[in-house]
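Dear Dr. H.,

I hope your travels went smoothly. While you were away I took the liberty of generating a structure for the chain from your last submission, since the lab meeting agenda had it listed for discussion. I wanted you to have the full record in hand beforehand rather than looking at slides cold. The sequence, exactly as received, is reproduced here:
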Amino acid sequence: MDTTTETARALAIRSVHLMSEGERADFDAIIHPDAINREGKSEPPATRGRGPAAYYATALWLRSAYSGLRHTIEAAVVQGDLVALHTTMHGRHTGPFVTYDEYGAIDQVFPPTGKTFATTQTHWLRVSEGKIIEHWANRDDLGQAVQLAWVPPTPTYLLRMARAKRKAQREHGGR
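The corresponding predicted structure, in token form, is as follows:
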């Protein structure tokens, strides 16, 4: 493997690990100022911008819902400026997981279940000027939802979701 390929591979892996353990300065070091996260459409408004601040906002959003968050890297493939990572994301659902609509308003809130999960994901990352400039992913959201007992929802859990959504909307100014 040449130096450029190994550097891109290491950078992509580091960017995924930062989601669970990185501080803002760590994101500044490896995320390009113009970087875009193509998965931001169901995330909080702060994640929808460009650059390290948006990526860090995604990390904070995930950490607020999942304790013990970590990724196991199963495989990494580099072709030119593109790195594909096959990962397993692990965590425990200990905080509300809030999803957002296309306008940035709260869509759904999944109250904590305390359950653990391990779900496969594929992350695609483009590297430019020695930093991550683009990210998109494929995730097993249904597998995660089943493991966390979000589906099939019980009547009690549906009530908890409705209460959690109202609370989140109050905390975020009705959004």
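Two observations you may find useful: Helices lie at 3-21, 24-30, 52-65, 141-147, 155-171. The first strand starts at residue 31 and ends at 37.

With kind regards,
E. W.
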